[in-house]
Write a structure and sequence with these properties.
Blueprint (H helix, E strand, L loop, with lengths): L4 E4 L3 E4 L6 H8 L4 E4 L2 H10 L3 E6 L7 H7 L8 E6 L5 E2 L3 H12 L1
Antiparallel strand pairs: 1-2, 1-5, 3-4, 4-5, 5-6
Length: 109
């Protein structure tokens, strides 16, 4: 599989998530209840990059870092943030390795 998503915690890094089923996303991310992140901030990132970026956090998390909330465009997130591709039905999809690199570069400015 390889690097196919971007994890935002107190830093930004490439990670591997199993996007084959919703249950596999839960298991590979370690998130108990993925909550979709699709905000003006992620839409602006998508527009800059030329592909639809969205993501998810753990709705049952114990508190996320400020960097994750800032990148998601929220005042607060309950966990770290995972950014990935998203289709027009808001399904989570893997990024290619080139897209992972583009997202990381786009976030770092």
């Amino acid at each position: 599989m390889g690097r196919n998503a971007v994890l935002v915690s107190d830093r930004i890094e490439a990670v591997e998530i199993d996007f084959s089923t919703f249950d596999s996303i839960v298991e590979s991310s370690g998130f108990k209840r993925p909550y979709t992140i699709h905000s003006p901030t992620t839409i602006a990132l998508s527009n800059r990059l030329g592909f639809h970026v969205g993501g998810f956090c753990d709705d049952r998390g114990g508190g996320g870092p400020d960097l994750a909330a800032e990148i998601a465009g929220y005042d607060y997130l309950p966990s770290n943030l995972i950014l990935c591709k998203m289709d027009f039905s808001y399904n989570f999809l893997p990024l290619s390795e080139d897209e992972v690199d583009a997202v990381i570069k786009g976030l770092r400015g």
